[in-house]
Fold these 3 entries.
Entry 1:
Amino acid sequence: MTAEAKIIPLDSVAPELIEQLLDRAFEPERRKRTAYKVREGMDWLPALSFAALDDNDMLVGTIQCWPVALTDPEGRAHPMIMVGPVAVLPEVQNVGYGKALMAATLASLSPDAPLPQVMIGDAEYYGRFWGFGNEHTSGWTLPGPWEPHRLLVRCDNPAVLPKAGKLGPWRG
Ligand SMILES: CC(C)(COP(=O)(O)OP(=O)(O)OC[C@H]1O[C@@H](n2cnc3c(N)ncnc32)[C@H](O)[C@@H]1OP(=O)(O)O)[C@@H](O)C(=O)NCCC(=O)NCCS
């Protein structure tokens, strides 16, 4: 079955509804995840963050993107976009909402200067459909525990990616 997703800007959704949905899609301890530390203190980017509604205009999924940076060993900060969480309510997973949310975000990236997109997620899903991969992230570190094969990046020109660095919030 494929659902018809209505995609709307996330900033048109009440913040408490977004939090309720994330609580249902993830475990209650979600805020302790390393991904939260990578983007600590940042606000999500409204132009790249979306919500999915079902046929009855009920909220069923969200995607958020954040300004982060990979700081290389010389101290240079390379801006990147952190994608996620991507969250779909358990009872309506696997009917296309996740793909619709990812498509909305990726289509909204600046075509002139798309920043590399980084995420912690399943390479099987984000690689298969969107070209994310872990080939370029083995020298990167995070401010907390992580599974290296789940640290993914997507970039038009991987040659620009630093081989080593630490991911954290974008400090401007
Ligand atoms: C991961 C998630 C966002 C995918 O969204 P979804 O709406 O359920 O998935 P879609 O309907 O867009 O895509 C379905 C396809 O992806 C595959 N797929 C879904 N989740 C997958 C995963 N974690 N790994 C590999 N493949 C996956 C399905 O098998 C299906 O494949 P098919 O088209 O060959 O049948 C959603 O399941 C979810 O919110 N999970 C819990 C939270 C989470 O883990 N988020 C990701 C980390 S930020």
Entry 2:
Amino acid sequence: MKLRLPGPTEVPEHIALSGSKAMINHRGPEMAELVSSISSDLQTCFETKNEVHILTASGTGGLEAAIVNHISASDEVLVITIGIFGNRFLQLVEMTGAKPTVLKYDFGHAANANDVEKVLKDNSHIKFVVMTHNETSTGTTNNQIADIASIAKSFGCLVIVDAVSSLTAMSVEVDKWGLDVVVSGSQKGWMMAPGLAFISISEEAWDIQKKCTTPRFYFDLLKHKASLANGQTPWTPAVSLFYQLETALKDIKKEGMNNIFARHAFCAEKTRSSIKEMGFDLLADEGYESNSVTAIKAPDDLNVAQLLKVARTKYNTIFAGGQGSLGGKIFRFGHLGYVNENDIDMGLDALKSSLNEIGFRK
Ligand SMILES: Cc1ncc(COP(=O)(O)O)c(C=O)c1O
């Protein structure tokens, strides 16, 4: 079965198998070596000198950690949302008791740095900016993130970013852009199974954590910091997934980050141009289309559920539908992680054959 999803993505066999190595003592020297080597490789991928911590949780756990360790009920926060995962971040901020200011864009649009500047000028008490880098639900990338972060920093804000589906598929220059807290998830560009979240934390963010009053325990990052100093995690980690991560990071290093970004850009561009040639429109505004996933508008006479079913049952290919209110209105073609031109060609063939099979003509 070919997974043309924006996660979970396909896992190469040697990475999958590396997860089946013999178990080790999670408090022993082998684990300390493993944790220290993968944490340092993760820093390279995040383009940061900040510590990167590994949580045994899915991406949402990482998002929760990013919020509950920094934002207290009395804080003023700007949440920028361009889709369903931005809305999830908003829910997490609201859970702390904080009453955020929300800058919301319609599906397919990206955030604009001038809008952010205006909100921050008008609301001088805002001290946190929370945003999604790559909005998987709409196939839209917040390409103005560097400008937005720079504006946020000039207003003295801490910048918290969901890079769950962008890291390793496109460049996320954590230090250069001034991103304080950045989250990713293992089942996206990392070529491994779901179950781990990665989170980078700046010095400024660590200081804020000491004053943050929001209750937390499992996701208390200060506990993670204390443990990392001993090459450990505070709670029993998913050791088998750490093995997979170690192997995946070796592959990432070998291919090189710039080559990986170029491969994703090529696969994404090929997908977009072929789909447009087929007569479809994309959901994302031009210039903001994601290199991880392409969201395609479904014409009124296209039955998306039927299309996905035929692709899965007859052409062994799994595409994603739309989430929430986008259900039935779009379908999504994933092109991140362990993917090459041949996979894109096969995905496009499966899409064309499935459309033919259900009698859809543009
Ligand atoms: C941008 C983004 N944020 C957050 C998540 C949530 O991650 P998870 O499903 O691993 O909890 C996802 C997963 O699809 C995502 O794409």
Entry 3:
Amino acid sequence: MEALVLFSGGLDSSTCLALAVKKHGAENVTALSVYYGQKHDKEIQASDRIAEYYGVAHRKLDLTTIFADSDCSLLKSSHDEIPKETYAQQLSGSDGKPVSTYVPFRNGLFLSSAASIGLSLGCKVIYYGAHSDDAAGNAYPDCSDKFNNAMNEAIFTGSGEQIKIEAPFVGMTKADVVRMGAELKVPFELTWSCYEGGDKPCGVCGTCRDRAAAFAANGLIDPLVKGE
Ligand SMILES: [Zn+2]
């Protein structure tokens, strides 16, 4: 095994998985999906379909208990509603705090967990799909270039220089990720991004808005909302 991919079943991590498979071959890639107490399991279902599509090994990890005290609006344990504005709107007047859908230090925890698992599997690299739109305005500080560099240094040093992080989209926008995903023929129709767990994407949560704008910027139609 060469590469471990943090894999939510969303658009960004699916494109990341496609990149890793292209570079390392499906037989050398393991996808790692983490359950953290989300209000729905649509992403996990999507991750099953996409891992099967690419023919990669698929591991799952349940870290729900770590977030038991969090009031993050994505979590089952929270009664807060998921905001229906864009990230930029949510951030205006937030005094520099992350958005309410920020899960406390999620990527730090996931990358650390991935480092432990990856080392045991003999992987040399951990991929994750953070991009600059999510880091913009400090919406998700654990998607920033600065965070990524710090984590990479910590993991590389702490692993005895055995494993490193690849964040191929950290300097790219979500529109760039969609363009790359389209080039790689990622099965976007199998992915799930929406924070709500409906039959169709809600269209109004922060990630639905971001996803729609990224497809529109490329002159593409999202297959999940085709015909609407
Ligand atoms: Zn949505």
